[in-house]
Design goal:
By secondary structure, this protein is mainly beta. 0% of the residues lie in helices and 26% in strands. The protein has one domain: Thrombin, subunit H. The two termini are 23 Å apart.
Length: 107
């Protein structure tokens, strides 16, 4: 997903730096996304109006049965705090930042 925003006034800030590699297991990261606010796929009829974030950590791939290897990453989650449908492809900042081409799976 991609969006182009046209702003009516200048904003200050720095662009997100993109890392040249993946984070290490147990490294603290922040998930940021526009995913659903409810846990079942399709349970939300409208996209969220606010960008959400979750501070979490990278888990070993074996902790996520859905991991297929390669560029996929596994993150810690809880029943109420996790990535959700619509969050795939979002960036995962960690000091510098992982590119949006990484796929995230939560445990």
């Amino acid at each position: 997903d991609i969006a182009l925003l046209v702003l009516s006034e200048r904003v200050s800030g720095a662009p997100i730096e993109v890392a040249d590699g993946s984070p290490q297991t147990q490294q603290a990261v922040r998930l940021i996304g526009w995913g659903q606010d409810c846990p079942q796929k399709g349970c939300s009829t409208a996209p969220p109006r606010q960008l959400k974030q979750l501070d979490t950590r990278v888990l070993p791939a074996q902790d996520c049965p859905g991991i297929k290897g390669g560029g996929e990453l596994c993150f810690a989650g809880t029943p109420t705090d996790t990535a959700c449908y619509g969050d795939s492809g979002d960036q995962v900042p960690e000091g510098s930042h992982i590119g949006v081409d990484h796929i995230a799976v939560t445990a």
